[in-house]
Every structure is written in C-alpha cells, then in structure tokens.
Design brief:
The chain has a domain of about 80 residues. It is mainly alpha-helical.
Length: about 110
Amino acid sequence: MAGRPALFKSPDELDELISNYFEDEKKPTITGLCLFLGFESRQSFYAYENKPEFSYTIKKARTRIENTYEKMLHTNNVTGAIFALKNFGWLDKTEVEHSGGVTINLVRKETRNG
C-alpha cells in the first residue's frame, strides 16, 4: 500500500510557502500555517519535522510563531499567549536549585540514674 504523495518536493519549496504565509498573515498560528500549506492536521505538519530534509524548515516556522506569542507577553492581554506558549513546552513554575550540603549535628542527652 503506497502512502500519500509528499506535499513538497524540497525544503526550499516549503520554506518559500512558509515565507509567503508570514508575509500575508498578521497573526500567525500553527493551525493557520497548516491550513495554508495544505495539511489536514497539525499532526501531519509535525510529522514533516521528523523528515530530516524538512526538519530545520518546520522547526524554524514553529519558532517564528512561538516568537509572535512571546512578543504578546509585553502587551496587556497575555492570557492567550501564555496558553499558546505552554503548548510550545514553556513552563510557568519557579524552580529553586540548592547547591551545597546540609550538616546535621545530633546531640545525645545523657541522663544519670541515681
């Protein structure tokens, strides 16, 4: 059983279409880019990232969209951007790293019988 034919002949062809999307779209999104490129789902788009010849191009496009959301963090309406960035793997937790050791001194109290 043969698979579906490739949507793109080369990374350069894909990169050119992605550039066209970013020139035309003022608020780029992953799903918007997927639809523009002819993918039927985000999963199909992400699958192209696993193809060595297209990996760089897909990662670069995702980073461009991530950058758009990151810039939105400097506005007054950040809730949507935070949600989107979490889907890109960002975390909103604080981690404290402790280095060094902990010394515990035990003191034995002696009692006298008598």
